Amino acid sequence: AATHPLWPQIEKLTMEQLGYAQQGVEGGVWQLFAEEGEMKMYRRELEEDGLVVDPLKAVHQVRGATAHEMVHHFWSPDVRFEWDTSIEQMTVLDRISSDTIIFLQLHKRVWPTAQRDALFWSHVRKIPSSHPANGEAYDTWIVCNQSTDHPDDPKDEKCVRVDLTVCFVCQTFIDPPIQEGKEITRDNLLTKITYCSVVNPGGWAPASVLRAVYKREYPKFLKRFTQYVVEKCESQPIAF
Ligand SMILES: O=S(=O)(CCO)c1ccc(-c2ccc(C3CCCC3)c([C@@H]3C[C@@H]3c3ccccn3)c2)cc1
Q1: Nearest residue to 63 via CA among 155, 188, 179, 158
Q2: Atom 6 of ligand 1 has which residue's CA nearest to it?
Q3: CA–CA dist 12, 144 (Å, integer)
Q4: Measured at the alpha carbon of residue 87, what is the angle toward residues 145 and 111, in degrees to the nearest 5?
Q5: 38 lines ligand 1 (CB under 6 A)
Q6: Residue 99's closest CA among 135, 120, 75?
Q7: Which of 2, 40, 218, 226 is most buried when burial is the number of CB atoms within 10 A of its CB?
Q8: Looking at ligand 1, which residue's alpha carbon is closest to its atom 21?
Q9: What's the whole-number mean pLDDT along residues 110-139?
């Protein structure tokens, strides 16, 4: 895949998005708009050509699954319909490597807006932890989704194409720190999650409607996804 024409963009954007996700939410730039338990959702109000493209940053922490398990289920096409209730159809247009897939997704219509679809590459990667694994902090994992073109794009005029950049970054901590010779159980797995997204709706939609949709859909989306992974993995051996 390192020879694929998209590879330089994939490499660059993935590392940029990792940096962006790891920036804090201090400084008054981010506005907290939803909070449920450990999950905090922030947005910045931003419009481009009169379209709401509010960047979103969500931070969450979940016990019971690893960063690898979270990120794998976020990336995998095989389980997407099990957790993502926002999509009606999903096609894998291309598998450009074992860790990079090109998706075409038809999203459920959000009344009164026109139906949307998204065509994006999705890349999953492990970022080895800089300091040697001190038995507490494990590797960081990231999925980066970025809108792209593809020759097999059906270009269905009935649909409005959204432009999206999404990253899903996870890191697992063993809590409390493991004692020598003691077994790690799923209850010791504390995974910190940062989800960032910028979705340009691609065509006109009333700002008030979009902001209401974002406020309703994103908290539901992230909560449902993380609960799905914890439940799916609870009886499985831990995959670090
Ligand atoms: O994280 S992902 O990569 C997971 C792969 O599926 C992803 C998440 C969300 C979207 C998405 C696509 C369209 C729309 C809108 C735009 C105008 C009308 C529909 C929205 C709005 C933000 C709201 C939304 C948020 C979450 C879930 C569903 N709806 C979101 C796309 C990809």
Answers
A1: 188
A2: 84
A3: 11
A4: 115
A5: no
A6: 75
A7: 226
A8: 214
A9: 87
- Contact by Cβ (8 Å): 124, 146: no
Q: Return the SS3 of 222.
A: helix
At 21, list the tokens.
Answer: 């996700």
| 3-class DSSP state of 234 | coil
Bridge partners for 200 per DSSP:
163
Nearest ligand 1 atom to alpha carbon 108:
19
Confirm or reject: Cβ of 101 under 6 Å from ligand 1: no
Is 201 a pocket residue for ligand 1 (Cβ < 6 Å)?
yes
Give this prediction's pTM: 0.96
Whether the CB-CB separation of 238 and 66 falls below 8 Å is answered with yes
Orientation of helix 207-233 relative to helix 67-75, angle to 10°: 120
Task: Give the model confidence (pLDDT) of 167-178 as tens digits.
Answer: 999 999 999 988
| Pairing label, strands 116-127, 160-161 | parallel
CA of 239 to the centre of ligand 1 (A): 28
Please report the pLDDT score of residue 180 as a whole number: 85
Q: ipTM value, please give it.
A: 0.97
Dmax (CA) of the chain = 61
Per-chain mean pLDDT for the chain: 94
